[in-house]
Amino acid sequence: MTDLLNLRSAEMADAERLLEWRNDPTTREASHNQDVISLDVHIEWLSNSLNKPDQRQLWIAEIDGVAVGTCRADRVENAWELSWTVAPEVRGKGVAYQMLSKLVRSFDESLVAQVKADNFGSLKVAERVGFVLDKQEGSVLFYVYPKTSFIAG
Ligand SMILES: CC(C)(COP(=O)(O)OP(=O)(O)OC[C@H]1O[C@@H](n2cnc3c(N)ncnc32)[C@H](O)[C@@H]1OP(=O)(O)O)[C@@H](O)C(=O)NCCC(=O)NCCS
Known about the structure:
Layout: E1 5-9, H1 15-23, H2 25-30, H3 39-50, E2 56-63, E3 66-76, E4 79-86, H4 95-105, E5 111-116, H5 120-129, E6 132-137, E7 140-145, H6 147-152
Parallel strand pairs: 4-5
Antiparallel strand pairs: 1-2, 2-3, 3-4, 5-7, 6-7
The structure holds coenzyme A (COA).
């Protein structure tokens, strides 16, 4: 099942779909910044992001050539912080697990992730992929992906 999903780098042509997914109400609920983002601000953010691959990497997940989700890696101290969104129309079908399990296997550096404690679907996926709960601060769960998972996976 996982092998049916392809991860490719995001490009400017993905701007509209990425903005649509970002402004989706459920995505906003799961985000730290819950503001609706304007097209202008988004275009600038995407353009800057694509020009700094050492700081941020963005992928589009596709199944049979259809975009089904996105993953992001942000450079933080000594690690990459992963975040993810599944296209609203294909949620509830296991896409997040497919995307993330493929993505974590492609990294050989430390990974971390933050998930809101009430985002049950996302924390279930994170744990299934191999992330381990490190700590909780307020309503946010902080996950780490242990190095041993790279060896095992
Ligand atoms: C959260 C999200 C990534 C989940 O992706 P998905 O591919 O739709 O995940 P699925 O629903 O197929 O699988 C998640 C698992 O959690 C379970 N789940 C979903 N909602 C749940 C809930 N409210 N309570 C308990 N379990 C739940 C599902 O049943 C499934 O488990 P299963 O495979 O054992 O049945 C997706 O809904 C999304 O993009 N949401 C908006 C953005 C977001 O929250 N991003 C993550 C930020 S950390």
